[in-house]
Write a structure and sequence with these properties.
single chain; 5-stranded mixed sheet; globular
Length: 152
């Protein structure tokens, strides 16, 4: 599993592995290069560049507090799953590197239309699959929740 990084914004916790974390930094460098080389204003190329590089940003696993996750299937899970992931990481000696600054999907309402249809499409590109979760954490969501149930 390796080392993981987290970022929090508006009640959403985003968690990425080391490979994705470094890809996010690379994406920032590429974006700066494109802006510098473009004759168009940065705002004019921002969505095109971001859409073109979005594959570098995934998967970003997102966890939200219970009242926000209700009927919101775009999150990886809620606080119980996040707690189980943290316990699993400790039990398997994998590190969590504190709080870093990177993009936190589903934390600003774009998935609900606050940025128009382009914003919705962009955000929904961050929905993670059970297979991505299993590939990253070595077990599925149900297995982790069964192994590390919420405290009563």
């Amino acid at each position: 599993m390796g080392i993981f990084y987290e970022c929090r914004n508006n009640g959403v916790i985003a968690l990425v592995n080391e490979r994705i974390f470094h890809s996010l930094n690379l994406m920032g460098d590429i974006r700066a290069d494109v802006y510098a080389a473009s004759s168009r204003a940065p705002q004019a190329v921002q969505s095109v560049v971001t859409k073109g590089l979005q594959h570098l940003m995934t998967p970003i696993f997102t966890f939200s507090i219970s009242h926000r996750i209700r009927n919101r299937n775009w999150f990886t899970g809620g606080s119980y799953l996040y707690d189980a992931v943290r316990k699993h990481m400790r039990a398997t000696n994998h590190g969590l590197c504190g709080s870093y600054s990177f993009y936190v999907p589903f934390s600003n309402g774009l998935e609900r239309g606050h940025g128009g249809s382009d914003g919705i499409a962009f955000e929904l590109g961050f929905v993670t699959t059970e297979q991505q979760f299993q590939d990253t954490f070595g077990e599925g969501t149900r297995e982790l929740l069964n192994r590390y149930p919420p405290a009563a």
